[in-house]
Amino acid sequence: MTGGNRMGFYGLGAALLVLLISRPIFAHDPIFGLGPHVLFKNGFEVAAEVGSEKAGSEKEQALALEVTYGLTGDWALGVDLPYAFKEEASESSSGKGDVAVFTKYRFWRKDSLGLQESAAVLLKVITDTADTNKTPALDKGATDTILGLTYGYEGRKWYRWASARYRFNGTNDAGVNRGDKILIDFVGGIRPTPTGYLEPDTVWLLELNGEYGERAELNGVELSNTGGTEWFLSPGIFWTRRNFAIKAGVQIPIYHNLNGNQEESDYRAKVAFEWHL
User: Shortest CA distance to 207 belongs to which of 190, 188, 191?
Assistant: First the structure.
């Protein structure tokens, strides 16, 4: 092999290595926070998610199907189709939850060997479409909107993310301004053993998730038992094999400062199964 051919061969090999390292399946997002991951152009991601949470006597389990489509390599569009099970005191009910549509746009990306940094914005609209005849507790009576900004650092060994979201909660049918909410997330991750594209891959995550809610208002008067702050420490795992992934985590409350008489969160948990098509 001549020197020029060798240089071309090595250059092709290096380019292939970068491509394999930065392929979409190696792109991860946090479990509870927001990450900048988007799909390749014309790609589909189908995710089935199971969630559970408890706050005092209130329990809720939810199933959700999420479908995402890659409009371009930096712009994705998706829909969430939830089904919820609510249990409060001695009553329980279940029914379809509020359908949500979302879009995420990655406006900045920097690639190097074994490393990708990126940032994205999110817009999500949560409609008022729950089956309230079967599950009255799901009736929020308004459409809500979430705006988010996120940054991600994804290396061969270390990961980190940071995000902020603002949820605009609408005024419901009873005239209650339900109070907006701010969500803040800081996430770190580690891949203990770097693996190849064809091998199973494991990343361990630790998230710090904060939520601040404004008081609700009725006719300009603040409602005492609404709003406040909660922080969670959230360990989790992200396991992938080629185009299939499983991620799971639990949110453990570490700080509460809720206004008035409200049930504090005991825990939240989530398991998701993802396929890239």
Answer: 188
Query: Which of 73, 84, 83 lies closest to 107, judged by CA?
Result: 73
Sign of CA dihedral 251, 253, 256, 259: positive
> Considering only CA atoms, which of 45, 40, 31, 43 is closest in space to residue 185?
31
What does each C-alpha distance from 66 to 232, 261, 275 come to in angstroms? 24, 34, 11
User: Could you read off the pLDDT of 132-161 as tens digits, one per residue?
Assistant: 776 677 778 899 999 999 999 999 999 999
Contact 35, 48 (CB under 8 A): no
- Spatial separation of the C-alpha atoms in residues 214 and 183, rounded to whole Å: 12
Number of H helices, E strands in the chain: 1, 16
The number of domains in the chain is 1
Residue 202: which domain range? 3-276
CATH number at residue 45: 2.40.160.40
- List pLDDT tens digits, range 219-259: 999 999 999 999 999 999 999 998 999 999 999 999 999 99
Distance CA 132, CA 140 (A): 9
